[in-house]
Amino acid sequence: MTNATSTTAERGHLAGRREWTAFVVLLLPLLLVSMDVSVLFFAIPSIDRDLAPSATQQLWIFDVYAFALAGLLITMGSLGDRIGRRRLLLLGAFAFSTASVAAAYSTSPEMLIAARALLGIGGATLMPSTMGLVRNMFRDERQRGRAIGIWSGAMAGGIALGSVLSGVMLQHFWWGSVFLINVPAMVLLLVLVPVLVPEFKDPNPGRFDFLSVPLSMGAVLPVVYGIKESAAHGIDLRYGLIVAAGLLVGWFFVRRQRSRSDAMISRELFRDRGFAAGIGLNSLAAFAMMGSAFFTTQYLQSVLGMGTMEAALWSLAPSLAVGAAAPTATAIAQRTDRTRVVCASFVIAAAGFAVLALTGTDSLWLLLGGCAVMSCGIVTVMALVSDLALSTAPPEKASSAASLLETGQEFGGAMGMALLGAVATAVYSADMPGSAPEAARKTLPGAVATGDGSLISVGREAFVHSMQYASVAGAALLLAGAVLTVTLLRRRSAVAAREELVLTH
After folding, report:
1. Which residue among 93, 133, 148, 430 is least enclosed by CB atoms within 10 Å?
2. What pLDDT, on the 0 to 100 scale, is given for residue 7?
3. Of 63, 71, 80, whose CA–CA distance to 29 is shortest?
4. Whether 176 contacts 105, CB under 8 Å
5. pLDDT at 492
6. How many Å apart are CA 223 and CA 245, to the nearest integer?
7. Which residue, among 31, 30, 36, has the nearest Cα to 100 in the 3D structure?
8. pLDDT at 4
9. Nearest residue to 291 (alpha-carbon basis) of 481, 457, 429
10. Separation of alpha carbons 487 and 339, rounded Å
11. Could you give the CA distance from residue 397 to residue 190 in angstroms, rounded to a whole number?
12. Helix (H, G, I), strand (E, B), or coil: what is residue 495?
């Protein structure tokens, strides 16, 4: 059965109260996985006092979760299609709960790093499983679009919520409490999912290709690591070689997938042009979202002088608008041409960046407004193109499709932080006086740390200037995304229309 006939056959199968209740339960792991990206923002000082990690260990405590998550998404998506998405979700929930308890009661930096790695492994099972289950539970296009819109908003909100919730918990409890908040939600998931969520898996999965597991990890991890390190420490030959090594392994991985009938990534996924277009546009949206996060948080803390908790609370404000944007936009897209809505959403996000380019050294409301407009546009793009990619994928490959979408987001986010961060860093360094200390010439926090009032003032002006340049670059990129949307999706719509015409005759 082709994608066109498959989609036609699925229309009219409406999900009822049971499916929507199950969907609410499936939002729990999504929120927790996205929250765990930022949950350590406030806990690190307390962890430093209790466990005394070295500088390298502290970095791994932060980063190992994201690396394990990114490296295993493709593997877990393929595994979910083979053994069943519900089964993998339950296994992941158990692993996530166990790792959360281990992290909360860690007695050494090494134990905490290992627990965070296990959390990342658990997270890699949860994300493609939940999106794959959504694809299978909501067979009606309108309902599925609405569900994925809510899913995208919840994921974006969870990242902002994680830092705030960890700050609140640390005011009343010890640092391990930021991990224990995962346990009740996961226990609830383990109880309710077997009752509410049906099992779905590929009826003819073929053998599992074990060699593709290290190849996929060897492709993803070096690229993500090299890009993130370049964003944090500047472009360096070492990081370039690491990225190049990952790309080389990626070439071998793709070559293996193209030559095997039981490939981890099925060639069926790419038969419809909408799938590849959805992954590409989704990655571009993640690029812009994470790129903006590089400097907006620093603006609140180092330019406006807010404390960490106050900055985290203010950063929640834009997410209030985001929560309604994606579901509303998906409803609009179902009444009109999807391509127009995605294109308009890219333009709206670019307008948000343009607002950020107007910020001065005392522009809190302008910053929040720009972030809200930009985030609404970006999350809308992510919801609509994710729905497009999932709807074109065969239902039996839903988890694999979801894992590729999420891996693309990881790449896009890392690239956004690296490239827009590089633009901002270059402008900032050029604006700082040559007589300033080296740390002050590199970052605004370095200038603040000097305690020199005049140098701090110059640093704030330089940072705002750098943010303006990066915002202009982000706006230009998003406008290019609007053009790309028209090019890719219009062409895809024309091909799909011709195929459907042939099938009906």
Report:
1. 430
2. 45
3. 80
4. yes
5. 57
6. 8
7. 36
8. 43
9. 481
10. 10
11. 24
12. helix
For 226-267, the pLDDT digits (tens) are 877 776 666 678 888 888 998 898 888 888 888 777 777 777
| Residue ranges in the chain modelled with pLDDT below 70 | 1-12, 15, 36-39, 41-42, 156-157, 159-160, 162-163, 231-235, 291, 293-294, 308, 321, 323-327, 330, 333, 491-505
Distance of CA 25 to the CA centre of its chain: 20
Q: For 495, phi and psi rounded to 5 degrees?
A: -65, -45
Q: Are 198 and 139 in contact (CB under 8 A)?
A: no
**From CA 290, how far away is CA 63, in angstroms rounded?**
15
Both tokens of 10, joined, read 């699925």
Nearest residue to 163 (alpha-carbon basis) of 26, 62, 236, 54: 62
Phi first, then psi: give them for residue 251, nearest 5 degrees.
-65, -45
For 392, the token pair is 């074109």
How is residue 240 written in tokens? 């370039």
Task: Kindly give the interhelix angle for 141-172 and 308-333, rounded to the nearest 10 degrees.
Answer: 170
Rounded to whole angstroms, the Cα distance separating 224 from 290 reads 13
**Angle, in degrees to the nearest 10, between helices 109-137 and 55-83:** 30
User: H/E/C letters for each residue in 381-449?
Assistant: HHHHHHHHHHHHCCHHHHHHHHHHHHHHHHHHHHHHHHHHHHHHHHHHHHHCCCCCCHHHHHCHHHHHH
Instruction: Answer for the pair 14, 142: CB distance below 8 angstroms, yes or no.
Output: no
Q: How many CB atoms lie within 10 A of CB 76?
A: 28
Tokens, residue 194: 């077997």
By the 8 A CB rule, do 126 and 28 touch?
no
Contact 475, 353 (CB under 8 A): yes
| pLDDT, position 500 | 45
Q: Token pair for residue 250?
A: 């990626």
- Output DSSP code: residue 20: H
Say what the pLDDT of residue 264 is.
76
Cα separation of 182 and 187, whole Å?
9
Decide: 401 and 275 in contact? Cβ < 8 Å.
yes
C-alpha to C-alpha distance for 456 and 454, rounded to whole angstroms: 5
Please say whether the beta carbons of 276 and 487 come within 8 A. Answer: no
Residue-level length of the chain: 505
CB atoms within 10 A of CB 221: 18
Stated pTM of the model: 0.80
DSSP state of 304: S
Give the CA angle between residues 317, 318, 322 to the nearest 5°.
125
